[in-house]
Amino acid sequence: MNGLGALTREAVLDAVRRKLALAVAVSCVLSVMVLDSCTTMMGAHFEINGEAVDASAFIAGGAGALTLVVLTLWLVTLAGVLAADQLRQTLEDGTATLAMARPVSRFVFGLARLAGVLAIAWGAAVALMGAAAFLLGSRNGLALGPAALAGAACLLGSLAMAAWAMTASLYLPRVATILLVFAAVGAVALANAIGAVTGIGGFFGWVDRYGPPFASTAIVALTTWLPQTAQDGMRIEAFDVWARLGLWTAAGLAALFVSLRRIEIGR
Amino acid sequence: MCETAVEPAARDAYPRAMYALELVGVTKRYGRRAALDDVDLAVEHGGALGLLGPNGAGKTTTLRLLLGFCSPSAGRVALNGRDPMDPDARLGLGYLPERLVVPGRVTVRNFLRLHARLAGQRGAEADRQADEAMERVGVADRSGDPLASLSKGLRQRVGFAQAFLGPPDLLLLDEPTTGLDHIGIRDAREWIQSARERGCTVLVSSHVLSEVERTCDQVAILHEGRIAAQGGIDQIVHEGESLEDAFVRVVRA
Questions:
Q1: Is A105 helix (H, G, I), strand (E, B) or coil?
Q2: Per the CB < 8 Å rule, is A98 touching B103?
Q3: Residues of A with CB below 8 A from B95's CB?
């Protein structure tokens, strides 16, 4: 694994030099500010047929779960967008050519670039998901365990998306890869959201059943935050979605390293 | 340039093959076009080969095959007897591309320190070699500057510095004097010569025939993907001819 440490450090520094890390940090700060205002709830009290009902927990759980699922999807998209550029840029600017003229394997080079993406994407994920979980827990009394599980889904989803986006970037122009990332996350989000509560067919049904379950894993992790009626209507199998996300991640990494091994460099 | 060989154990782990680099019956096709067609080429350890040829002759493809950047469509390529796709085959390899295109935001010092590490040096030794290399090629006073701010000639000097990190046992130089002024060209010649005195094998791909004549003892002339002539300079250049005359004669024939 000659050069892995040096190349990973260089990948992170490269993102810092290109101000990508700064842009992500600024967007994280802005997101935390939005979270701060969104997680403040004064209470939800209703009167139904003359009977007082406290719906605070009902609303806090639903809103909290929605917040973390949206954050997960945003962070998965971020990982994909960062990955769309990280490897391709090195092939264009000569970094890859010079590095791979050294006793550095293509596997190590790809791994280092992926690690560079994950250092930023996972850093943002830990900061944002952590801040959201802390605010929701301290203000609305939501348990931290499900949030931690949703965080794990976010990290695994980011890894899967980064690996696939990097693979696509070896064959597609940068803009096409980024559009593909947005389209994939959008389609998965829609399919998972509908599929969580009702059976669907067609393209979105296929995406929900076989696609990378970026949203489903977060939803299933946060089920205990939801009111009992919502939990009863949930159509997601926890083992199925976690196993599928694991498979998509493994397949993404395999696709990346096989593609990297096959491509011709510097042509 | 850099006198201290580090990680000799890693390099010595492999037996020394007869040739430092070798192409045997190599054909490389891009679609239906053959960039190289049944090429045989070999350089012994410590030898220096000038690879000549008009544009599109297949010189860059030859270098890319030797670097493991692509695989031959047919035939065998070897660095010290090993497949160049194997990273260990590239132990002790120094490469200078025709144009040193690198991320412009990186400083000269950080660029060389990274490459010293990739060449197998560690920590303080990597930093020491990078500093020494900057001193030797005359860019020490620009060590903190981004590469993008350097002139073409200075950037080529930095390219030489990175190629000589390690130090190398085999140098692949693609148009090494591109962008250098007369003093730079003379310096480059001295750096190559000092590497040869250390026992380094050199392959120079160049259009500048006078440079090849001064730095190499063997030449191979590639034309339309085939070896048109190969051997010692005195074997290829006839009496009363310059290398340029011989090159034109071989290519036109």
A1: coil
A2: no
A3: 98, 101
- Which one, of A131, A136, A154, A165, lies nearest residue A215 by Cα? A154
Q: Is B67 in the A-facing interface, judged by CB distances under 8 Å? A: yes
- Whether the model clears a pTM of 0.80, i.e. scores above it, the answer is yes
The interface residues of chain B toward chain A in range 179-218, judged by CB-CB distance below 8 A, are: none
Token pair for A266: 């510097």
Q: Does A85 reach chain B within 8 Å, measured CB to CB? A: no
Taking each helix axis from N to C end, the angle separating A238-262 and A106-140, rounded to the nearest 10 degrees, works out to: 150
Across the interface, which of B100, B105, B172 has its CB nearest the CB of A17?
Answer: B105
Query: Cα-flanking dihedrals φ and ψ of residue B128, to 5°?
Result: -65, -45
Instruction: Indicate the SS3 state at residue A198.
Output: coil
Helices (H), A18-105: 20-38, 56-93, 95-100
Q: Which domains does chain B have, with CATH numbers?
A: 8-252 (3.40.50.300)
Which amino acid makes up residue B95? Y
B93 touches chain A (CB under 8 A): yes
Structural contact between residues A243 and A212, judged by C-beta atoms closer than 8 angstroms = no
Asked if the model's pLDDT at residue B4 lies above 50, the reply is no
Q: Cβ(A151)–Cβ(A130) under 8 Å? A: yes
Compute the nearest-CA separation of B84 from chain A (Å): 9
The tokens describing B107, both together, are 């400083």
Residues of B whose CB is below 8 A from A91: none
Chain B residue numbers touching A17 (CB-CB < 8 A):
103, 105-106
Q: What is the ipTM of this complex?
A: 0.86
- Cross-strand pairs, B231: B219
B129, amino acid identity: Q
Rounded Cα distance, B101 and B199, in Å: 29
User: What are the percentages of helix, strand and coil residues in chain B, rounded to 5?
Assistant: 40, 25, 35
- Residue of chain A whose alpha carbon sits nearest to that of B165: A102
Compare all CA atoms of chain A with the CA of B86 and give the residue at the minimum distance: A105
Phi, psi of A78 (to 5 degrees): -60, -45
B106-127 residue pLDDT tens: 899 999 999 999 998 888 999 9
* C-alpha–C-alpha distance, residues A159 and A59, integer Å: 31
